[in-house]
Amino acid sequence: xxxxxxxxxxxxxxxxxxxxxxxxxxxxxxxxxxxxxxxxxxxxxxxxxxxxxxxxxxxxxxxxxxxxxxxxxxxxxxxxxxxxxxxxxxxxxxxxxxxxxxxxxxxxxxxxxxxxxxxxxxxxxxxxxxxxxxxxxxxxxxxxxxxxxxx
Length: 151
Description:
Structural class: mainly alpha
């Protein structure tokens, strides 16, 4: 039996509803009267599966755009938290800043071939290095606080 080139209206409606703000796969199938075996058959259909994967990719792209737009605000707030009077909050903010990785020139996970992985030394700080950085930050903060108090 030849595979259809186009999706049916019912298949498009199911896809549309699956990719809404609050998707619930079973609720969508029930809404459209699609039994689970039929849905599984659709997922095995090359055209339906392709559309399904394209929608997933689009959703991830949209989330990356949102994250990119919010990153400057988040960075500013995180930087302010490093000056918190609460030691644990400042410490966690420092750790978060140290562990941040710039996503510039990074490809989405699906676009990166498994062979091209950066060496661990470029990605991670050793606990020793992180401790030294935190100690240096704490020392600088202590000196800054002393200078403010002594003026």
